[in-house]
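A.,

Following up on our hallway conversation. Structure tokens first:
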């Protein structure tokens, strides 16, 4: 009995000493902080600290330390009661059941928070015909999975709460039920089959399009290279010419084969400009490694492979100006990004995309230079085009020595005009 009393006294005495030291230390730090605040009016900017990784690592370690201290204190409490032949002080089965219920409530709130807060950060509505179908399929999948997620977790956590351990209750042995097995096998199979069929139909509509002779797609070639995109328009003939990687030189960076006459009018562009409500067909390839041709606002993504041409066709439906009004952001712009981690400059591999009216596109395309220049014409033995002569600048008027000078005195001009009239 004396041993039990000794353990009990020493344990609580030690806890009391620790608590007293902690309170005194906290008080000293608080007094020093108050004194420092009184002597200086300078405000410490905590923003950079809150943004640092080290701050949150230390915060996590502090939380772990707090949990460990609480756990050790509870362990001492349990050992003390055992040494004193007292009944168990804490019903851990009830504690675990309550924790399950709390985790359920916090988790459901987390789902609500994700939908209401992060849900506003997703992409705006799709700006292409096919993108709207992809969004529809995505939303249906998200609704179904959210319902299943919430339902199964409510059942799981409530079951753990209501059927916590009870010494006066014996668990019922329920090994198998054919009806339940059929239900949770057949229903998911049917739902997944419907989703797969929807995805297959959507995929077919994107990659197997029927060409409308009255609305033929605009062909644009995009070549990827670490870490840039090169854009080539077809010119007046509407056909992008052939190229050969074996013909790549310092001047002919894309390896254009000028034996193909379709290349002579092809045009370069520093940005991608496409007309609204007109099909656009991209021919995509790479010069070095695999890149990802990714335009998120149009729901367009396909690989750019070296040595192989891939194609993606879509029809934009919202101009850049209209999307700026929809998202209430005058600085908004569509972008072409790389979705593959292709190297150190991957993050900066992008190109601006503008969706404009047909009239704006027609005006813009006439201002774009052709890919071929006189240096390339000489290399491929093609006729050199004479560059337009630059007009000589007009000579500046020479100021005269006095007020009667024609170059400076308006009165002299008037006298001359009057003399001519006479």
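Then the amino acids I'd put at each of the 422 positions:
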């Amino acid at each position: 009995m004396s041993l039990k009393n000794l353990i009990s006294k020493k344990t609580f005495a030690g806890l009391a000493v620790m608590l007293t030291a902690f309170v005194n230390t906290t008080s000293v730090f608080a007094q020093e902080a108050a004194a420092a605040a009184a002597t200086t009016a300078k405000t410490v900017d905590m923003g950079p600290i809150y943004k640092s990784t080290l701050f949150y690592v230390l915060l996590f370690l502090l939380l772990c330390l707090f949990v460990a201290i609480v756990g050790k204190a509870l362990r001492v409490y349990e050992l003390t009661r055992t040494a004193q032949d007292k009944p168990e002080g804490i019903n851990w089965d009830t504690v675990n059941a309550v924790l399950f219920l709390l985790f359920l409530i916090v988790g459901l709130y987390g789902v609500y928070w994700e939908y209401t807060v992060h849900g506003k950060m997703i992409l705006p509505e799709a700006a292409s015909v096919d993108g709207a179908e992809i969004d529809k399929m995505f939303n249906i999948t998200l609704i179904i999975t959210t319902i299943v997620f919430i339902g199964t977790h409510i059942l799981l956590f409530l079951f753990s709460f209501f059927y916590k351990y009870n010494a006066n209750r014996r668990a019922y042995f329920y090994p198998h039920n054919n009806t339940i097995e059929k239900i949770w096998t057949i229903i998911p199979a049917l739902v997944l089959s419907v989703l797969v069929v929807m995805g297959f139909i959507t995929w077919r509509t994107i990659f197997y399009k029927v060409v409308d002779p009255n609305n033929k797609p605009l062909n644009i070639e995009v070549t990827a290279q670490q870490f840039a995109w090169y854009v080539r328009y077809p010119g007046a003939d509407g056909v992008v010419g052939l190229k050969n990687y074996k013909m790549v030189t310092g001047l002919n960076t894309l390896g254009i084969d000028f034996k193909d006459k379709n290349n002579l009018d092809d045009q370069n562009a520093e940005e991608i400009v496409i007309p609204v409500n007109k099909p656009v067909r991209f021919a995509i390839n790479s010069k070095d490694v695999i890149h990802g041709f990714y335009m998120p606002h149009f729901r367009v993504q396909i690989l750019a492979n070296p040595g192989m041409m891939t194609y993606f066709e879509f029809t934009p439906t919202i101009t850049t100006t209209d999307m700026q009004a929809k998202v209430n952001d005058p600085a908004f712009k569509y972008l072409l990004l790389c979705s593959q981690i292709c190297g150190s400059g991957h993050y900066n591999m992008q190109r601006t995309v503008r969706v404009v009216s047909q009239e704006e596109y027609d005006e813009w395309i006439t201002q774009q230079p052709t890919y071929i220049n006189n240096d390339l014409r000489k290399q491929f033995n093609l006729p050199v085009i004479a560059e337009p002569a630059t007009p000589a600048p007009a000579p500046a008027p020479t100021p005269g020595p006095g007020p009667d000078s024609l170059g400076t005195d308006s009165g002299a001009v008037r006298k001359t005009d009057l003399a001519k009239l006479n």
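The chain has three domains: 1-33+48-90, 92-208, 218-379. Curious whether your intuition agrees with the design.

B.
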